[in-house]
Amino acid sequence: MTGQTAMISAFGVLLLVAVAIFIWVRRSKFGGWALGLSVALLLVAVAGLLFSALAGIYTDFLFFTEVGYRQVFWTRTLARIAAYVAGAVVAYAIVWAVTGLPRGLFAGMNADDARHTSQVLKWTRIAIALVAANFVGLGASGLSLQLLAAVRQVASTMYTDPIFGHSISFYFFTYPVVRGLLGILAGIAVGGMAVIGASFLMASSVPGDAALRRGLRNRLSFFAGILLLIAAVGVWISMYGLLFQSNGVVFGVSNTDQVVRIPLIKVTAVGVLLCGIVFLLASFKPRLANPKFLGWVGAVTLIAYILLVSGIPALYQRFVVKPNELARETPYLANNIAATNT
């Protein structure tokens, strides 16, 4: 992790803490020092993020100026700024649009409680949506240069990997962009879940909130389903990342990966996809919207993921491959040599 990345991560965490304190203040109806602390932390976090970003930009400016490529610096910088703004605006718009609560959900409350709860949830929604938009914008900014490279790439036919049948350009350009886009989509879904989850906690002590809590549970299930669908795609494409890892005497796909891990990754991806569909259906079908049932579905999916992707391949590697590793890995060593000679 670079120093700039560490600073951005630290101030990002501070921003989350500031928002959490702000939400607690709004929920508890406190003011004074608590409200001041949340505002102070928020200002420090925003200032820190701006300083970290500007410091990195200035360092790049000095470097590109020194080597005589100032135009490249401006192209990179403007592309990243445009991507940040576009990503943040789109993320905020989506989170704001899909986390709106109809007035009917406040029907069980008296007028004062409904008005106060609505205002608290509105500010909670704004604060969390802004934080989510910032992180999505940062992700889009980091992805912008990879996306430009992928758009301008010339497909390479010099070498095709023998495992998945993709060219080198797929792994250097397409694969990183797809992973980045999945991360951005996951960030938007997590932002929506955070808004609904915080709203659920803040509405838990208001009399007559049964309809509101039920509506929030349905929306939380919806966002969880969307996040699981994104995770299913992420699990599926994670098998391409096996070509970049070292496993025993082989760099890339090994015997364990080919025989056990890749098939189990596909099975796991299908399982996560089905789990996501269940959560989505639960957001529309009251009979499925049972917290215990959904909890069991999520727990079984998580345990299955750990066993299928990590546990079983580790056992196969230990008890099947290790006793005769060189013989079993010989075909995959040949793949390494062929790729090196290309």
What does the model show?
By secondary structure, this protein is mainly alpha-helical. The protein has a domain of 225 residues. It is built from 9 helices and 2 strands. The chain has a two-stranded antiparallel ribbon with strand order 1-2. Helix 1 packs antiparallel against helix 2, helix 2 runs antiparallel to helix 3 and helix 4 runs antiparallel to helix 5. The longest helix is centred in the middle third of the chain and has 42 residues. It is flat, with a radius of gyration of 24 Å. The model has no long low-confidence stretch (mean pLDDT 77).
Quick structural overview:
The chain is mostly helical and 342 residues long. It has a domain of 225 residues.
Radius of gyration computed on alpha carbons = 24 Å
Helix-residue proportion: over 70%
**Number of DSSP-assigned strands:** 2
Low-confidence runs of at least 5 consecutive residues: none
Main beta-sheet strand count, sense and barrel state: 2 strands, antiparallel
Q: What is the overall silhouette?
A: flat
Q: Write down the oligomeric state.
A: single chain
Approximately what portion of the residues adopt beta-strand conformation? Answer: under 5%
Main β-sheet, spatial strand arrangement: 1-2
What's the pLDDT, averaged over the residues? 77
Question: Topology, pairings included?
Answer:
Layout: H1 3-28, H2 33-66, H3 70-98, H4 111-152, H5 168-202, H6 210-237, E1 246-247, E2 250-251, H7 255-282, H8 291-321, H9 325-341
Antiparallel strand pairs: 1-2
Helix pairs in contact: 1-2, 1-4, 2-3, 3-4, 3-5, 4-5, 5-6, 6-7, 7-8
